[in-house]
């Protein structure tokens, strides 16, 4: 089924390729692998376009190590099988040095082994804990806080709302169990109880699941799915006249959802998301590139990916995945000159100075297994049909 | 769980299942009708359901038409798309066998899905409908929209029954499904009947897509997500049998809800596969099927 | 005027698969003409050509003096030539009445009056009219198949092995029905495997061998002709009976 789509995209990228190839031989090849379709579909196109913007700027400024950058953008369809096929194409056909932007944890989990086996660096926005626990030997980093941390924040937030009985409804994902465990621990630490129900995200109605939830008599329901299934769930919670609070991920209860479902259904829903570094220099650059005052966290993160990858290549003096692998932490953290764009960073590196990248999504400092160290969270609530900031902490 | 509690939960799940099964029956009938007359499984049925859902969306939100009229628009849009798929993608392969035609329909489904994406993007869209709270009857909870969709599905099935049983064209369609050679000998034009069957099947799928969307919201994958359930319902009832598709859809609808309650919600999509496997093992002709 | 005159009919399933290589036939009103011959002689193919299911490569067909081109089943129904095929000749899932209505598919306006005629002719069909055709016995199905064909008000009725698969008793009953139909004025062209009985009930017969006319004439005379008896009847009667018994 997806074969034809793949062929179509392949031929499209083949058609596009000649215009990208500049005078220099052997350009630097970079790939984005973002969801252009599926649950991540609202984010992937913006993410790919942001990377394109950075690459164009760097190419215009002379490229990296005297070479132009050729960007190949592929669609993972928010689907591991399609993701693996697209990654194979990026690795085997395009021979990219790095792949950036894998969004769904299931896709990242499937693609990561291909990357490290072929010495291709992988930068991801996926949150599942299991990802950085893979034996990747330094071949991946992520800018998204892991889901245990997110689950803990969720649990703490629920308790702070006065919740004693928390019912968590999530589809099956690589992070469902670990995230729930963290929520439950936070809830129990606050004297509450939590129960998990895993539902099928493809179901057009979740009435029976909501009945299950209501029998638990929860005062907070955590809707832990993606946009399509969460909108089904919120409707069914409304129909069932659930009177407690609803917490959800900001990537699910987003502008797209607010425009698509009746206001009263989402009214009062609280959301939580790792917060981009609003007000930082990098964030301002993403605002300009994405053409919006409120770029989503993933676009901020992939902006950081491409900047880090290009600077690591410059730092290592080579354009291979190995160079990125060996040098990324030398540009992402430390006591060097603070930069928020590859343009500045590349100039500094060329001048022999150390750099410390401070990105649009946050400080972008990584531990030894590739988890990002410090991220703020943003809490919002739907009021009168619009997402309203409660706090960033 | 105490017994009475479980009993109430099961009753509620069964009611939910009957309602979702009845709505599922609409596209399942469409799938079976196409199979009965053209002898291949049209897997574009899911994408056609999405096409109908968006056709109804345009009628409802752009032209401001009421729900019932929008459902007819959903039917018409999907019927036209179904005929285009049939003529452009499937018919040229009708000498190559049912498998090739099924594959062509899959390919067409991808095209349709992406045509929708091209115009409306990936995001969710909702119909212009008031959001109503459920009504509680003792332990049982029923939604007004749910009941309305149930009624519309029943009405669509009655209309279909009347068409098939009482009109010469409907009778001719059943005759072709039963014995195409004899129908041709009696002067029935097979090409015309094929077009009617495709339009009818695709139209019902489109209506089903919109009915499902009414209860939730729609995106390009609204229909494709249903393909497994539709196929399982048709296989269970006996491929090509219209009463079979209705019964199959009811069984699938109830089984999916009971799975949520008695096993685990995430095993819901297993129901379709298990049913297909069981039917093919035990009774390949399905419950109502004449052909093996 | 003669109901059907066929001359030099040639046709088959493709240029390399000619089954009918030159056949002539004449059917007069009220006459029952049977076509017999060994397996593969092209008997059923002649009927398919005359019903518009296959396109002839050569030959002429005249129905009541009018030249007819068998372009499609529809064209042949319009010309008045209606075929009852050998197998699967009713719509099993449809009711008896719906089967009859399908017989008048090309002339739906006349269906009502003709259905009354059909019920008058075959009272059995009226009794069973709400029943699915698949629930009928073999003999009843053949009656329904003929009733369905008559709904088109044919000027020539063609029957392809009507007694195939019937018990001897049911076959005799059916032959009687066919005979009565012919006696009422309907010209009938019948292909039969069961040659001896067919000759017995028919007025005239045509014997086909390898796609060509081999013999022809009054049925009674042919039945008595020792050559015919030896060639087609003696050897075939025994296996045919076993087939009927087992069916």
TrEMBL record, chain A:
GO terms for biological process: amino acid transport. Residues 1-25 form the signal peptide. Residues 27-332 form the Leucine-binding protein domain. It comes from the Bacteria. The keyword Cell membrane does not apply. The keyword DNA-binding does not apply. Keywords: Amino-acid transport, Signal, Transport. Belongs to the leucine-binding protein family. This is Amino acid/amide ABC transporter substrate-binding protein (HAAT family). It comes from Humitalea rosea.
UniProtKB/TrEMBL annotation, chain B:
It is a multi-pass membrane protein. Pfam families: BPD_transp_2. GO terms for biological process: D-alanine transmembrane transport; L-alanine transport; L-isoleucine import across plasma membrane. Keywords: Amino-acid transport, Cell inner membrane, Cell membrane, Membrane, Transmembrane, Transmembrane helix, Transport. Coiled coil: none annotated. Its main location: membrane. The chain crosses the membrane at residues 6-31, 43-63, 69-90, 97-120, 150-170, 191-214, 226-252, 259-282. It is found in: Cell membrane. It comes from the Bacteria. GO terms for molecular function: L-isoleucine transmembrane transporter activity; L-leucine transmembrane transporter activity; L-phenylalanine transmembrane transporter activity; L-valine transmembrane transporter activity. InterPro entries: ABC_transp_permease (IPR001851), BCAA_transport_permease (IPR052157). One of its GO terms (cellular component) is plasma membrane. Belongs to the binding-protein-dependent transport system permease family. LivHM subfamily. This is Branched-chain amino acid transport system permease protein. It comes from Humitalea rosea.
From TrEMBL, chain C:
One of its GO terms (biological process) is L-amino acid transport. InterPro entries: AAA+_ATPase, ABC_transporter-like_ATP-bd, ABC_transporter-like_CS, BCAA_Transport_ATP-bd_LivF, P-loop_NTPase. It comes from the Bacteria. CDD domains: ABC_TM1139_LivF_branched. Keywords: Amino-acid transport, ATP-binding, Nucleotide-binding, Transport. Belongs to the ABC transporter superfamily. It holds the Pfam family ABC_tran. This is Amino acid/amide ABC transporter ATP-binding protein 2 (HAAT family). It comes from Humitalea rosea. Residues 4-235 form the ABC transporter domain. The keyword Nucleotide-binding applies. PANTHER family: HIGH-AFFINITY BRANCHED-CHAIN AMINO ACID TRANSPORT ATP-BINDING PROTEIN LIVF. GO terms for molecular function: ATP binding; ATP hydrolysis activity; branched-chain amino acid transmembrane transporter activity.
């Amino acid at each position: 089924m997806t074969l034809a789509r793949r062929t179509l995209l392949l031929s499209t990228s083949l058609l596009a390729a000649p215009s990208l190839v500049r005078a220099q031989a052997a350009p630097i090849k970079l790939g984005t692998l973002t969801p252009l379709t599926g649950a991540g579909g609202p984010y992937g196109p913006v993410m790919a376009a942001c990377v394109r913007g950075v690459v164009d700027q760097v190419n215009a400024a002379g490229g990296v190590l005297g070479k132009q950058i050729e960007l190949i953008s592929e669609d993972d369809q928010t689907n591991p099988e399609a993701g693996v096929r697209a990654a194979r194409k990026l690795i085997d056909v395009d021979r990219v040095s790095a792949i950036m932007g894998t969004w769904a944890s299931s896709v990242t989990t499937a693609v990561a082994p291909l990357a490290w086996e072929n010495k291709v660096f992988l930068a991801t926005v996926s949150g599942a804990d299991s990802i950085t626990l893979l034996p990747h030997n330094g071949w991946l980093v992520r800018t998204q806080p892991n889901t245990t941390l997110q689950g803990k924040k969720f649990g703490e937030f629920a308790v702070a709302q006065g919740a004693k009985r928390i019912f968590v409804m999530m589809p099956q994902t690589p992070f469902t169990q670990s995230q729930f465990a963290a929520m439950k621990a936070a809830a129990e630490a606050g004297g509450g109880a939590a129960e998990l129900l895993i539902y099928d995200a493809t179901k057009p109605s979740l009435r029976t699941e909501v009945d299950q939830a209501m029998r638990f008599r929860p005062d907070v329901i955590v809707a832990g799915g993606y946009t399509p299934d969460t909108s089904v769930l919120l409707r069914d919670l409304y129909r069932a006249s659930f009177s407690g609070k609803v917490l959800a991920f900001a990537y699910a209860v987003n502008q797209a959802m607010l425009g698509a479902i009746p206001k009263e259904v989402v009214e009062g829903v609280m959301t939580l998301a790792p917060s981009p570094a609003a007000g930082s220099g990098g964030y301002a650059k993403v605002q300009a590139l994405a053409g919006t005052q409120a770029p989503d966290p993933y676009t901020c993160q992939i902006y950081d990916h491409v900047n880090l990858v290009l600077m690591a290549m410059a730092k290592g003096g080579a354009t291979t995945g190995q160079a990125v692998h060996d040098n990324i932490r030398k540009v992402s953290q430390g006591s060097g000159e603070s930069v928020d764009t590859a343009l500045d960073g590349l100039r500094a590196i060329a001048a022999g100075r150390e750099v410390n990248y401070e990105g649009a999504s946050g400080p972008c400092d990584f531990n030894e297994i590739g988890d990002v160290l410090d991220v703020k969270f943003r809490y919002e609530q739907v009021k009168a049909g619009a997402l309203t900031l409660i706090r960033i902490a | 769980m105490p017994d009475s509690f479980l009993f109430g939960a099961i009753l509620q799940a069964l009611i939910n299942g009957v309602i979702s099964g009845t709505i599922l029956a609409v596209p399942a009938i469409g799938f079976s009708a196409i199979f009965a007359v053209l002898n291949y499984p049209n897997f574009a049925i899911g994408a056609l359901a999405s096409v109908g859902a968006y056709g109804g969306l345009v009628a409802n939100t752009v032209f401001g038409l009421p729900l019932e009229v929008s459902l007819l628009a959903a039917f018409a849009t999907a019927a036209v798309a179904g005929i285009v798929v049939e003529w452009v993608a499937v018919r040229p392969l009708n000498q190559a066998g049912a498998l090739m035609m099924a594959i062509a329909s899959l390919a067409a489904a991808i095209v349709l899905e992406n045509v929708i994406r091209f115009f409306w993007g990936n995001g969710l869209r909702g119909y212009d409908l008031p959001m109503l709270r459920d009504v509680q009857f003792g332990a049982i909870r029923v939604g007004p929209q749910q009941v309305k969709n149930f009624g519309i599905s029943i009405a669509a099935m009655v209309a279909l029954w009347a068409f098939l049983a009482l009109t010469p064209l409907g009778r001719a369609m059943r005759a072709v499904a039963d014995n195409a050679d004899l129908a041709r000998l009696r002067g029935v034009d097979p090409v015309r009947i094929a077009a009617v069957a495709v339009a009818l099947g695709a139209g019902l799928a489109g209506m089903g897509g919109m009915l499902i969307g009414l209860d939730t919201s729609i995106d390009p994958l609204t229909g494709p997500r249903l393909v497994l359930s539709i196929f399982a319902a048709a296989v269970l009832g006996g491929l090509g049998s219209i009463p079979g598709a209705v019964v199959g859809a009811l069984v699938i609808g109830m089984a999916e809800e009971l799975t949520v309650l008695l096993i685990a919600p995430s095993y819901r999509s297993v129901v379709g596969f298990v049913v297909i496997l069981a039917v093919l093992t035990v009774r390949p002709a399905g419950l109502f099927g004449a052909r093996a | 005027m003669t109901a059907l005159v066929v001359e030099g009919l040639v046709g088959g399933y493709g240029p390399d698969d000619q089954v009918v290589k030159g056949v002539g036939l004449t059917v007069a009103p009220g006459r029952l003409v049977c076509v017999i011959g060994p397996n593969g002689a092209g008997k059923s193919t002649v009927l398919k050509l005359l019903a518009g299911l296959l396109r002839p490569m050569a030959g002429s067909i005249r129905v009541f003096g009018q030249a007819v081109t068998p372009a499609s089943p529809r064209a042949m129904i319009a010309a008045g030539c209606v075929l009852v095929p050998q197998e699967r000749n009713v719509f099993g899932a449809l009711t008896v009445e719906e089967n009859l209505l399908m017989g008048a598919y090309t002339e739906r306006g006349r269906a009502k009056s003709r259905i009354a005629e059909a019920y008058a002719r075959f009272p059995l069909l009226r009794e069973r009219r709400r029943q699915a055709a698949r629930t009928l016995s073999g003999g009843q199905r053949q009656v329904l198949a003929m009733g369905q064909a008559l709904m088109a008000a044919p000027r020539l009725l063609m029957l392809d092995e009507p007694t195939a698969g019937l018990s001897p008793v049911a076959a005799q009953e059916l032959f009687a029905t066919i005979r009565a139909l012919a006696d009422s004025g309907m010209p009938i062209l019948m292909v039969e495997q069961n040659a001896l009985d067919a000759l017995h009930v028919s007025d005239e017969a045509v014997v086909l061998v390898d796609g060509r006319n081999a013999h022809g004439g009054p049925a009674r005379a042919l039945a008595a002709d020792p050559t015919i008896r030896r060639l087609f009847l003696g050897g075939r009667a025994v296996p045919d009976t076993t087939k009927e018994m087992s069916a």
